[in-house]
Design brief:
Blueprint lengths: L1 E4 L7 E5 L5 E11 L4 E8 L5 H16 L6 E7 L4 H6 L3 E12 L2 E11 H6 L7 E3 L4 E4 L5 H10 L1 H4 L13 H16 L4 E7 L2 E12 L5 E8 L8 H15 L5 E7 L3 H9 L3 E12 L2 E11 H7 L2
Parallel strand pairs: 4-5, 12-13
Antiparallel strand pairs: 1-2, 2-3, 3-4, 5-7, 6-7, 8-9, 9-10, 10-11, 11-12, 13-15, 14-15
């Protein structure tokens, strides 16, 4: 990889060529503040870069800026269709989503703002995209690159899922809407607030599962929510997926307690929870605004001790 400064840019603009000397990116140094020890860049990719290509470029940028100790924090603005895995594997956090910032190919796009400190970068913490395999289904971390699959899932199951979910705007059922939704969920993941999973049978997205509202400290608790496509109901896929999530939550994420709630008449969902060791805690009146109304829910919980003792 070759990086060259653009002439007459005063060291503010750089071109990036791959090993074949074909230009595939450029970046701009927008701010270089020695008082706050921070730098801000804008990265523009001119073709899709592989994870390894982008990681190499990011490593060279961050290493160059931080090697003298003058810069502690590096922030990078880039288009929402970037390969987010490269940023993630190098310890970057998604710090913001700037709406409608880029106009390209007659489409208005958002920009992501990624940031990393020199300390975090030096650790090069590998937080590769999560995958939890099972016998018939697997859980895969949801990210914006999967928007087309999620759009197909929601469009195909819109009528079926409506009685069980909050009302959604029409934009939710567009590719742009799914990209925005997944961007927000992915940001929560990067910032340690939630873990959004897709439920896959082979390579087909058949459902969604989310661990959210993480409260650590003396509570070590999270909330569990999920949905499954209409055509895959009644085959045990949801019970298996929840079992995978429970195992991950207790054995990998270090949680002590999980909580989940169902509508009073959603007997199938109640069976899923009971099959995985959850106990009914009680009635939550007017708990969630579902399909236009505040609706009562049964709330369930599961402790790590129960999970380990019963061997679910």
């Amino acid at each position: 990889m070759r990086i060259e400064a653009v002439h007459a840019s005063d060291g503010k603009e750089f071109l990036v060529q791959d090993e074949r000397r074909i230009q595939f990116a450029r970046f701009f140094l927008l701010e270089h503040n020695l008082q706050t020890k921070s730098a801000l860049l804008r990265l523009k990719l001119q073709r899709g870069a592989t994870t390894e290509e982008l990681k190499e470029l990011l490593c060279r940028i961050v290493s160059t800026l931080t090697k003298r100790g003058e810069i502690f924090k590096v922030s990078i603005l880039t288009s929402e269709d970037v390969n987010v895995r490269a940023f993630q594997e190098l310890g970057f956090a998604l710090e913001g989503v700037l709406q409608d910032q880029v106009y390209r190919d007659s489409i208005i796009q958002n920009e992501y703002l990624f940031g990393v400190t020199s300390a975090r970068f030096s650790m090069k913490r590998d937080v590769a995209l999560l995958e939890v395999p099972g016998e018939r289904v697997r859980l895969l971390l949801a990210d914006p690159s999967q928007a087309s699959s999620y759009l197909a899932y929601h469009r195909a199951n819109r009528g079926f899922l409506t009685p069980f979910e909050p009302r959604k705007e029409e934009r939710f059922f567009t590719l742009e809407g799914q990209q925005k939704e997944l961007s927000e969920r992915f940001r929560e993941y990067l910032n340690g607030q939630a873990i959004p999973f897709g439920i896959y049978r082979r390579d087909e997205l058949i459902g969604k599962l989310r661990l959210s509202n993480f409260v650590l400290g003396s509570f070590q608790n999270a909330f569990l929510g999920y949905s499954l496509s209409e055509e895959n109901q009644g085959q045990g896929y949801m019970s298996e997926a929840v079992g995978l999530a429970v195992r991950f939550a207790f054995l990998e994420a270090g949680l002590h307690r999980l909580e989940a709630s169902t509508l009073l008449d959603n007997v199938a969902s109640q069976h899923v929870l009971e099959n995985n060791g959850f106990s009914r805690l009680g009635l939550n009146e007017k708990y969630l605004h579902i399909n236009g109304d505040w609706q009562d829910h049964w709330t369930y919980y599961l402790l790590k001790e129960t999970y380990e003792k019963e061997g679910f």
